[in-house]
Amino acid sequence: MAKNMYFMKKKDTTTAYLMLLPLLVLLSTFVVIPLIYAIFVSFYQWNFYQDSVFVGFDNFKSVIYDDQFYKSLWVGLKFALIVIPVQFVLAFLFANLIKTVGGKVSGFLKGSIYIPHVISGVVASIIFLFIYDYYGGLANFLVGVVGIEPIAWLTEIKFALGSISVPAIWLGFGMTTLIMLAGLNDIPRSYYEAAEIDGANAFQKAVHITIPLLRNIFLYLLVVGTTGAVQQFDLPYMMTGGGPLNETMMPNLFIYNHFKSDPYMGYTIASALVLFIVLGIISAIIFKVLNSKKGLDG
């Protein structure tokens, strides 16, 4: 009996490894091996046309002492600080609205707000370039209605970063709302009924029931949203090119520009690895500050 159990367990283990094998092969091919090779190349003065020269940590030192790289990180963080809070508040309110209305209207709203998520950043950039056009754009038409002079939304320093934040909020709003809605639907109705019996109003229910029970949802969205915002590339590349005066130059665009202009790949790869470490630290801080909780059925 014990021998049969041993062989059954061994067979189950073998089956499990065989099922995981395709995933392990894909991860190794497209993630692990390229990452190891990138780390290897970062220690060399490397390009496509000459022999590589080992330079140790020189590429990383160049990145660490590069003020422009730090500025791009700061721009990415400012961009995230604009996009994420606004997106969170709007998505939370809209998710509650969808849950409240229910029925066919709810289905229509869910479909409508998801549409921007399937639009590429390039297409969104073109749309908003027309909206921000100085002479015929919708944005300047609206401000003109209230008597304000036309604004160069993408070329004035004080408006540029905020202007490219608007399409970023629009693109991510739908998915964020649907994820929050899924979290709201997972909260048992009995919690709210008990709170109503105790005389709790809508605000108290939101503060003491909804928000605490959405902690894991918020944690996921905050980590994914922050890392995604800091790495934004399409919008600044298409709409401003990093200008004016590098005020919208985000890390990925900075790395891309360096890749185009520098024949040696060592610095480019080293800066990408430093960005990877910075994003890992940001994610770790978010996890440490928020912590995740067990699910309702845990």
Short key terms for the protein model shown above:
about 300 residues; mainly alpha; MetI-like fold; 2 domains; two-stranded antiparallel ribbon; 13 helices; about 75% helix
Fold topology:
Layout: H1 2-41, E1 44-45, E2 53-54, H2 58-64, H3 67-101, H4 103-114, H5 121-131, H6 138-145, H7 157-185, H8 189-197, H9 202-213, H10 215-230, H11 234-239, H12 251-261, H13 265-290
Antiparallel strand pairs: 1-2
Describe the structure.
The chain has 298 residues and is mainly α. The protein folds into 2 domains: 40 residues; 224 residues, MetI-like (MetI-like fold, Orthogonal Bundle). It contains 13 helices and 2 strands. A two-stranded antiparallel ribbon has the order 1-2. Helix 3 runs antiparallel to helix 4. The longest helix has 40 residues. The mean pLDDT is 86.
Q: How many structural domains?
A: 2
CATH class of the largest domain: Mainly Alpha
- Cα separation of the termini: 35 Å
Largest sheet report: 2 strands, antiparallel
The SS-based structural class is: mainly alpha
Shape: globular
Spatial order of strands in the largest sheet? 1-2
CATH architecture of the largest domain: Orthogonal Bundle
Strand content: under 5%
Order of helices and strands: HEEHHHHHHHHHHHH
- Uncertain residue ranges: none
Summarize the structure.
This protein has 298 residues and is mostly helical. It has helices at residues 2-41, 58-64, 67-101, 103-114, 121-131, 138-145, 157-185, 189-197, 202-213, 215-230, 234-239, 251-261, 265-290; strands at residues 44-45, 53-54.
